[in-house]
Amino acid sequence: MVLEIDRRQAMAYRVAAHGLHRGGTDPAALAVFDLGVQDDAQRDTANLAVLARLDTAPRRPLADDERFLSTWSHRGAPHYHRAGDFRALLPALMPWDAADAAARLSWQRRDMAAAGMPADEAIRTAAAALRKVVTHPMTKGAASEAVTKVIPEGLSLWCRRCRATHILDQLMRLATPLAGLALRPGVSPVTLVPLRPRPRVPEHPDARAAVDVVRTYLRLHGPATATDAAGFVGTTRTTLTHAMWPDDLVEVSVDGRRCVIPHDALAALEHPPEADVVRLLPPRDPLVQARDRALLVPDPGHRKEVWKILGSPGTILADGEIAGVWRARRSGARMELTLTELLPLSARVRAAVEAEAERLGKARGAESLRVSWT
User: Quick one: DSSP state of residue 263?
Assistant: First the structure.
C-alpha cells in the first residue's frame, strides 16, 4: 500500500530531517554533513547553514575545524565534508561510464570529438595528471597552468578572459577530488592542497558508495524521484537507476506525485513534528538544494526570486514554507539586511525573523545591524 501525503507533510519531514528544529552544539553531528554542505566562501554560506541548525553559534568556523575539509565534489561545486567521511565518498564521484561522465561534464558529441577520447577517460586522465603535478599547495591558476602542460590538447581550451590556454574548468573540478586534492578553506585565491596520506585515483566507481549518496539524498530531500536525485548527482536518470539505485526504498505519493524514500525514514515521514520554526537560511542552504523546486516553492514567480541564475538570495523559512528572501550588505562593522516577503507574514513571524537577523549579525561579527522590510 502506497503512503499518501500532502506537500505540507513532506515539507515538515524535510525541515526535521535537515535539523532545522535545532539541537546540540556540534557541527559534525548535523545530518546535512552526511551529504555535504555546499559553500560560497565569499558569502560564508556553509557557516551560516550550520548556524541555522545549532542551539549556539559554533566556537570556530568550519575552515578552522580540522574535522572538516572542503573540495569540489557533487556536480563540481565546493562542499564541506566531514574529513573522516571523504575517502569513502571518492569512489562515488568516479563516473560509471562515458555517458555518465558526459552528463557530469555537460558534454555533447562535439565536446568528446574535440577531446579525442570518451568523457570518462578524460576525467581519469585529468585526475592522474593533477595528482602528478600538484604535490604541494598550489593556487587554482598555478595548478591549471601546470596540468595543462601535461594533458592532451583536447582537454584544454583558450580562455578569452584569462588570455591563456588551460584545462577545461568543469573537468578540473570533477578531477580534483579524485586526484586526492582538497581546497584550502577560507582563502582567496582558491588553493588546492594534497591530502595526507594521499589516496590513489579510484580505478573504478564503487556501487556501494554511489548508492549511499543517493540514499542520503532521498533521506534528506525525500520523498523524491529518481530524476530529482540524478539532478543532484549531476548524472542522468538512466545511469542513476541502473547503477546507483538503493533497494530499500518505499513508494510514497505526494499530492499524487509518485516518489520514494528509504524504508528506515518512513516512520519519521508518517509523523513529522510540526514545522513551526522560523530560520534565516543562507544562499545554497542544503534545504534549497533539493531538485524538486516546485515542491519547495509552488509559485513559479516566487521560484524566480529564490533561485537566481546569479546571486541567489538567502531565504526565510517560516512554519514549513519558504516565505521570503533576504540579502545582506556589509560595510566595515555595519551590516544591513533587507527582508522581502513572498508570503504574508504575521507579526509573530516577523519578530522571530528579526531575532534571527540579530543572531546572524552577531555571528558575522557585525557591531551594528539595520533590518528593513520590502
Answer: G
- Between CA 151 and CA 128 the distance in angstroms is 9
The three grid cell numbers given for residue 365, joined into one nine-digit string? 561579527
Distance CA 13, CA 347 (A): 25
pLDDT in tens, 309-333: 888 999 999 999 999 999 999 888 8
DSSP state of 312: P
Q: From CA 213, how far away is CA 222, in angstroms rounded?
A: 13
Q: For the segment 126-159, what is each residue's pLDDT rounded down to a tens digit? A: 999 999 999 999 999 999 999 999 999 999 987 7
Number of Cβ within a 10 Å radius of residue 263 = 12
What predicted TM-score, i.e. pTM, was given to this entire model? 0.95
C-alpha to C-alpha distance for 49 and 38, rounded to whole angstroms? 9
Provide the residue type at 51 as one letter: L
Query: Which residues touch 29 (CB under 8 Å, ≥6 apart)?
Result: none
The answer for residues whose C-beta is within 8 angstroms of residue 273's C-beta and 6 or more apart is: 12, 16, 21
Q: Which residue has the cell 540579530?
A: 358
CA 369 to chain centre: 29
Separation CA 19–CA 29 (nearest Å): 10
Separation between Cα atoms, residue 254 and residue 224, nearest integer Å = 9
Neighbours of 280 (CB within 10 A): 25
